[in-house]
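Class, carefully examine what follows:
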Amino acid sequence: MLERWQAALRALLPDTDVKLIDGRGLVIGGCSKDPDAGFGYTAGTKAKGYKLHWITDQCSGAVDGWLVTAMNYAEQLAARQLIEHLPRHTRYVLCDNNYDRNDLYEQAGAQRE
């Protein structure tokens, strides 16, 4: 289903060379005994749960890569894994200051050479 939806998005709107990386907290109840869930920050508050990290196309919104981690997994580490899934034609990667690290810049640039 996801693949068909992605294909439909790319058919309607062009796949650009600008990609976005971001994360979103998936909060679960505090009484949950889920051993895989972690405590971390989401939307300015601390919560228990998971975090969805993704790369999307700036124009079409099609997803080029995604990763689900515990809430306390660092966004920089998730970005390191997601950068490997950037399409070859990517020229710009936009993200918030949680991803502001020199090693991520170097990794993204090295993959474009």
About this structure: The radius of gyration is 15 Å. DSSP finds three helices and five strands in the chain. The chain has a mean pLDDT of 87. The longest strand covers residues 45-57.
